[in-house]
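quick one before i forget lol
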Amino acid sequence: MSQTVAGCTILKIPLKYSYFTISGPDHENFIFDYVPSKLEYRILTEDVKQKINSSMLGSFQGSNTLLLDNEMVLTRKVAELNVEYNHGQQIFVSLDRDIDKQLMVVSFIGGLENSKNLALVKNKLLSSYFEYKRDRIELSADTHRFLFSNGEVQSVRNTFRTILMELADYCNVYISILYKNTKTCSLNVIGNSDAVDLALNKIRIAIDGINPDKVIDYVSLEHASLTPLLGGLDFFHFKKIMQETMCTIYLPNLLPQLFNFKSPSEAKIYITGNELYVSMAKNAIKKLLDQVKGFIYLKEVMIKSVKRDLLILDNNKLFLENLIRKTGCFIQIPTLGVSENYHDSLVDIIRIQGSSAKMVEECGKLLMEFITSYYHCNYTVTTQLPTGENDVVEKVFHCLQKIAVSQDAVVSATVNPDIANNLIHLKFQVNSKAAKIRKTIPILQSLPLLLDTKFLKQQVQFHLELSNEERVFIEGKKNGKLMKIMQKSNVAIKLSPFNEHNLILQVICENISESLIGLKLLEDELPKIVTFNVPECFHRQIIGVGGSTVQTIMRKHNVFIKFFNSVEHGKSPPSFPSAFVRKDNVVIKCPSKNKAGIPEAKVELQNLVEKFSKCTYLRTYLKLTRSHWRLLTDVTDPFHKTLETTDMISDLEKKTNTFVNFPIDEPSPIFDLEIAGLENNSELSANSLSTILPVDHEFKIQPHQSWSQLQNADQRELPSPGSIGYWYLESVVLPLKLLNVEVQIFPSEIQDENADAQMGANSIVLSYFKTVDDSTSSKVSKALEILENFLTKYGFEIMARLIRDPASYIIHKSKGQVDYKEVKSNVLYDHNVPFDMEFKEKVKAFPSY
């Protein structure tokens, strides 16, 4: 350790040590491997092995085995920083590695007067940190026959080898193919975690490009931040496009540059699949892009810099990606080691971008709720100055090392001697998750023994973040809850504002043991919240006369229950691609000490829904088509601009006091839409919905020998080039898509209940929205002309044409139980508690590419 000054600051940050070995040519199971020239590695010598947990290296360690690890870059950076700062600025940096825990602990020590430069040095060091990652793609000689010769995976085609080498150089990653058996192999990619994600995306796209049955196209974005805005809530629109076109959509990295990785790739959304369907998918994405460009909302939220660092270092990427998908908002977190707040090095700015002000606000709220899981602890002590000042620094240094390694926590200390009064002031700061913070206390309690002195004065402070909305809840009536905690534990509790979402709760005490008691009592009073959806038509019955029913449940389970209606939630603007997403409208909340009552209260509420649905609810059905569903969920259709909101189903349910079981996934070609309500409400709701359904223009067609080809194309069976089915897709389906007109094939004509059937007739139905402007008539005329020209050209005889009456889709009413359990699996829920796993199975996830 370097020579210390009169006072000093010590900072320790634990970092994950990640590494992989490359056996390459020495391994008999390797079919292909390539190490790019710019990839840093070292030979796995005996000296290097001693510094690594040998049990983690694997059984094969040949003479040419290479080691990729993230210690090399940090070691070099530490040396550079010591050359730059150790002499003039008296700042020293060191790097230690704990072999058993696979941790590296970087230590900074400098004079008290150099605190700003210490923060600068810390950021420079962290900007060089990254984690190695391995991911793989399983390949099969049967599925990927175009990648291999002779039907065996040992014979990788030269074209694919060349592409893999180019991508390895482009992304600076190691790529290998490992033999499993004659028909299967594993393609492995190792490198910087961000580089691996980029490489996997590129490899999958390249594989589809080699596939003779697929083509590749892309949509360029100005920035990757537009990707979630196009996807909408839960990436509903990307899923919808893939279902309609059978294409694969490859998205840019949703969280680019968390580590300091400069992506060489521009922001593009790639689409692969059948040529005609790729054109449809590309057109759909471009329409979404044109729509969201005009409605972009931006919000900035403050976060403490150390919590920003922990958000990245604690491997929260999956949570952040799920939050992005859930809200349809982009979250820009400053790159690790980069501060964008030049006025205050202790605070950073996170930016949130979305196409709805409401969802941007919701995303910020959920992110700040997650941040509350991180605690901050201050421990200040005053003691007599020991004889050896440097011994104090040495002992404090090793105490911090113990905390950093054992609890994986960011920890710092200031040592401030008061020579005049023969005193020394110590201040420790620990930042980590709540459980780890509590485990550091025994280590801090051992300081008097460690320093061989008595503490003259000490104080412990725990800083917790809590949502501003919960201030009244945590205070209690007339601050009753906090007063009770302070009386029981001899702590002081202060509340102070931090940002527009969160406040800071401070627990202050002169005694460590008492502080833990106070912290536990406060945590017992912190709110535990679960939210879910109950169809609004059941709310009044569940609440009961004067709230009697719900109050009984609240008293029984010691919880608070609140119901929201659609008016309180507000409306989504027509520009926001979020149609048919049900919001959580029931909140169950209680102090954490009573959280066991929440699941029981939730079950009781759901049982009431089952009970009421059995008794008096009538169900009316609308017989709808796939075309209806596609048009109703396509918010880029000009029809939706004539509406005040995209929450059409929620509005309808509110007005008619019904439940509309609208499917979130693309349904069968013809499906029954169930509407449930009291008395004749379901029929009124069905009538209202029928007035906004698309217009159906039906062509009745004489039987034809090629009719089956049209049916197959309609069912998304890929037709062979040059067939009638292929020309149907190219000359009818695709042009009509551009006109916002859906076309659907039926084996027999759609009939009214009272209509006479024309035996042997087939049907082609054009569906479109009719708007008040003049554009509809020209659009319809052009669509009809396109279809008629195709039918005439290929000899299909039109027997009749008619416009369907939407009222005829209402087919019957019946009493009976609403299948609420089935409803929950068909509805896309918008959960406000993203880390409550009990309810997450209802959210249908979008695959990550």
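fyi The longest strand covers residues 455-467.
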